[in-house]
Fold this sequence. Notes:
The chain is built from 14 helices and seven strands. By secondary structure, the chain is α+β, with helices and mostly antiparallel strands.
Amino acid sequence: xxxxxxxxxxxxxxxxxxxxxxxxxxxxxxxxxxxxxxxxxxxxxxxxxxxxxxxxxxxxxxxxxxxxxxxxxxxxxxxxxxxxxxxxxxxxxxxxxxxxxxxxxxxxxxxxxxxxxxxxxxxxxxxxxxxxxxxxxxxxxxxxxxxxxxxxxxxxxxxxxxxxxxxxxxxxxxxxxxxxxxxxxxxxxxxxxxxxxxxxxxxxxxxxxxxxxxxxxxxxxxxxxxxxxxxxxxxxxxxxxxxxxxxxxxxxxxxxxxxxxxxxxxxxxxxxxxxxxxxxxxxxxxxxxxxxxxxxxxxxxxxxxxxxxxxxxxxxxxxxxxxxxxx
Length: 327
Ligand code: DON
C-alpha cells in the first residue's frame, strides 16, 4: 500500500512542479523577447508640451505583468518612477463609478468615445450632448469635479484609492506637477468651456489643480501592473484579496478603455491587439486581459496620438504570444 502511494506521489510531484516552472519561464521569456525586439526602436519622441516630460531618458523601457493569481513578472526598467499622466483617468473614473454610480457618470460626464485627440476643444463644441469621455482631458477634469469632498478630503480620497490599487504609497512627482501647473492653459480653457456648458461640477481652479496632481503621481511599471490587476480580476485585487470595485463597474470601465483608451487610435488598437488599455503621455500604457493578467509597459517616446511606441509594440507582441485578444 505504502509503496503504491509513494509511486503515485513520485509520479505526480515532478509533473506539477515542472508545469509551474515552465509557465513561469514562458512568461519571463516572452517579456524578455518583447524587450529585446523593441529596445532598438527609436521611433517617436518624448512629450514636450509639459517641459518636465522632455527631460526623461527616452531609452527607458520596462515591462511588468501580473496574473490574476497574483504572480508578478517583470523585465527591464521596472523600478524607474515616471508620471502616471492620463493612465490616472482610469482610476479616477473607477472611483467616480463606485462613489457616484454608473448612471450618474454616463449622464453627467458621458461615455461615448470622441475619436479626437485627448486635449480636443472642438470635440466639446461639435458634440451637442456635450458627452465628454472620462478618458480624455475634458471628461477627466469633469469626473474629478464630480467627486465628493473639498480640496483636502477629495485629494485624500483619490490618493488613498490609488494607493489601495498599487498596494503602496505613491508619491506626487513635484517637478512634473510644477511643470504642468505652469503650462496648463489649454486644460484651463477646456474646464472653463465645460463650466459654460454646465458640464463641470465645482470650482474650476481647484479641480484643475487636483487633476494636475493626479497626473503627476509617480509610478513604476511594476506599480502600474499591480494597480491594473484588479481590473483583470472582476474588481478583486489578486495581491491583497480586497474587493475594490463591483464587477459591474469593472465592466463599465473596461468598455470605456476599449473604446477610448488610446484616443483617436483606439479603434486601430482594438482591431490589432484586442485588449482594453490606457496610455499616458509619461510613456506608460496599461492593458487588461480579463480573467488572465494585467500588463504595464513604460517607454517615453510617443506617437502622434500621445501613445508610447514601444509600449504598444510590446503589449501587442505579449498579448499575441499569450493568446489574450478578448475578441
Ligand atoms: O492633461 C494633460 O494633458 C496630461 N496631464 C495628461 C495627458 C495624457 O497623458 C494623454 N495621454 N496619452
